[in-house]
Write a structure and sequence with these properties.
The chain has 14 helices and 15 strands.
Length: about 475
């Protein structure tokens, strides 16, 4: 089979072919590395490409499989790693000049799990500096470009991963999501992005993070691949107190189940209040498609969402504590956006921080009540398609909204609430706008109900108008 055809496939399609020795992990990795090298000048999606290490892993995989020691669906599959996930012996920059020479001594727990499953790591992927933003316009390593429109952002902060999965370089990429940083590259790059329940996946080895609400999650080319990835990533980590020792079901077993009788909640406020017209039209089409598949529509109200902005207070305080030591010794190495985003945190009063946590609890309780009424929620993932890389503002409903810097919460308006609440959420492509840029729809379920999340998302994926669409710079296009 030609390399072009291999690179366009999904993990679910490739895994049985690798297991049956029809596809060589060495050949597959060589093709993926060649594509990474070809597209790097165009996408700028990597900070470090691990040529020698990836080929060594591929040779080990091929030898193991030839001996009959097949580890599972990720064995021999090339994937990418966001450069804020600690990799032993490999520079991990977190996208900043501050950590340009930082080499961790241990791998992040998620990397250990993927490696044990036989995955092959192509490289460390470009991101927003310190994973603090929604664009992936990195001041030190350059902007990541969206393969659907090279003048547009891929979303952030896991932009390199979203671009690589969409373009056919990696078959999956691990990102991190503190306000939508996996789901936003998912929607802007036309791929599937998952933020599982808080506590489902270990955060150990995630560098320079928040103490409240960060998640490590996969970007993939299909819902089935997302389920395979979470199967490997999920589970209690005794050394990470944020993880919860709850059973991990067989996620793939839920992919073919019907939606008949499931109640679909459509929020009457916040999520549809501030939207690009083409985004709203695409998501309303998704709602209609799910009704045809048997889901029952029910409008729900979330009045406490009026106060979701209070979460920025605790985020500001978290940020200044996280960066305190580095700001003391490396202030001049910070990019301006992260610097001016972080410094105000030192002025947050204890009582205001406490009030923000109280608001967070009230919002969590409200979602808990709503999830007793419906099986899942459906919302737009982002209010707009991907803005241009050089855009300072986006116009929605006649008003200008900042893309970066203070007051730039528009892009993550619909994703960040789930980081405060902790519920699982997934974005699935649901079409493109008139300029050919992807649009995503977001599904949300109750805590630790990722199996139901995959069930809903997989049903929708089968009828999505995005089926068969590929970006202009993707392999074979």
């Amino acid at each position: 089979m030609p390399n072009v055809d291999l690179l366009r496939m999904t993990i679910s399609e490739l895994a049985p072919m690798i297991q049956n020795k029809e596809v060589s992990p060495v050949e597959l990795t060589e093709a993926a590395l060649a594509e990474a090298d070809r597209l790097q000048p165009t996408l700028n999606s990597f900070i470090t490409i691990l040529h020698d290490r990836a080929m060594s892993q591929a040779q080990e995989s091929e030898a193991e499989i030839s001996r009959g020691n097949y580890r599972g669906p990720l064995h021999g599959i090339p994937m990418g790693l966001k450069d804020n996930l600690a990799t032993a012996g490999i520079t991990t920059t977190v996208g900043s000049k501050v950590l340009a020479n930082h080499v961790p001594e241990e791998d992040a727990e998620v990397i250990v799990r993927c490696r044990d499953a036989g995955a092959i790591f192509l490289g460390k992927e470009n991101l927003e500096e310190f994973a603090a933003g929604a664009t992936s316009n990195n001041p030190h390593y350059g902007a990541v470009h969206n393969p659907w429109g090279l003048d547009h952002i891929p979303g952030g902060s896991s932009g390199g991963g979203g671009a690589n999965v969409a373009a056919g370089v990696t078959f999956a990429s691990l990102g991190t999501d503190l306000g939508g940083s996996v789901r936003l590259p998912g929607t802007f790059c036309g791929v599937v992005g998952l933020k599982q329940s808080y506590g489902r996946v270990s955060q150990r080895g995630l560098m320079v993070t928040s103490f409240n609400g960060d998640h490590i999650g996969p970007m993939t080319r299909s819902v089935a691949d997302s389920a395979l990835m979470l199967q490997v990533l999920a589970g209690n980590d005794p050394l990470d107190p944020s993880t919860v020792p709850v059973p991990v079901p067989d996620y793939s077993a839920f992919l073919g189940k019907s939606l008949k009788g499931l109640k679909m909640g459509v929020p009457s406020n916040h999520y549809f209040d501030l939207l690009d017209g083409e985004v709203e039209s695409a998501v309303r089409g998704s709602i209609a498609a799910l009704e045809e598949l048997g889901a029952e529509l029910q409008e729900v109200s979330l009045p406490m969402m009026e106060y979701i902005g209070a979460m920025r207070i605790s985020a500001m305080a978290d940020g200044v504590v996280t960066h305190e030591a580095m700001l003391k010794y490396h202030r001049e190495d910070y990019g301006p956006d992260v610097f001016y985003r972080t410094i105000p945190g030192q002025f947050v009063l204890g009582k205001d921080y406490s009030k923000s946590l109280r608001v967070q609890r009230m919002i969590q309780e409200e979602y808990a009540q709503v999830m007793q009424q419906v099986n899942f929620l459906i919302t737009p993932t982002a209010p707009v398609p991907a803005p241009r890389i050089d855009a300072a503002y986006i116009k929605v409903n006649g008003e200008d909204h900042r893309v970066r810097g203070p007051g730039s919460g528009l892009i993550s308006r619909n994703t960040s609430p789930m980081n405060s609440v902790g519920l699982p959420a997934i974005t699935v492509p649901c079409g493109v706008n008139s300029a050919g840029l992807p649009i995503g729809v977001q599904f949300i379920t109750g805590p630790f109900e990722e199996a139901l999340l995959f069930q809903v998302a997989a049903n929708y994926e089968q009828v999505s108008p995005s089926q068969g669409l590929r970006p202009a710079v993707a392999v074979g296009v």
